[in-house]
């Protein structure tokens, strides 16, 4: 299969890289702009108010491990999506779809990255390596099969994000609270569907038909917008109920301050959904949030509320 692709004339040889440097090619191939998603491994230790420098070092190793593992999966996903990416108005510029790197080289790079990621996971602990291995297996299943199953693709993405939380918890020996699990599951599910809405919007703007290789149709957009809102608003409700819980009472001096954080989160959620509805959101809401100034302000305010709730006694 790989040899046929390389001989078909679709791919250029390694010495013809459209004036791209090797470093820039691999930055695009590894999707380094997605690395901040892996900071999720730090969430459990902050949520448990158990931050310390030895654990911070361990989590840094876990973070790097997930960067390599996730990049490996991105490359595998690009390989299986190759015909579809070449016809996509934006994804056709990716190194593999653009013919800047051959499938054989991409897959070899993917396997090397996966080995490095699992080795770093083992360095952080056998339990972490086990979580990373499970992440890789599920992610490969997603790239090959699960992303073509209606709604199951979004649920799988939810689990893949959750694996980062699980790895962080295992690495530091802290338990994930049911509140954090429920909140993150609803939020990740909502964001996964927002991503699908944005992908459909891009195709509608470009005058293209139903997304190839995906279980969704352009006519599904209203349904997906409602389901995305349902997931995001469920997360808002969970965060609103959390200050009255025994867990919050044990961790925070003034947990009711967290209601202010929930208002900021509600604003951010409504704005994200509105941008997706107006076709003003890129196809990845997490990447958008990382580069959006309003999202930065909301995140800083939420963090400030968390610190105030922990330190101030009212």
TrEMBL record:
Record lineage: Bacteria, Pseudomonadati, Pseudomonadota, Alphaproteobacteria, Rhodospirillales
Pfam families per record: UbiA
Full protein name: Decaprenyl-phosphate phosphoribosyltransferase
GO CC field: plasma membrane
Membrane-topology annotation of the record: Multi-pass membrane protein
A biological process from GO: glycolipid biosynthetic process
Transmembrane segments: 56-76, 96-120, 127-145, 165-194, 223-242, 257-274, 294-312
Compartment(s): Membrane
Molecular-function GO terms, alphabetical: transferase activity, transferring alkyl or aryl (other than methyl) groups
CDD domains: PT_UbiA_2
Keywords, ordered alphabetically: Cell membrane, Membrane, Transmembrane, Transmembrane helix
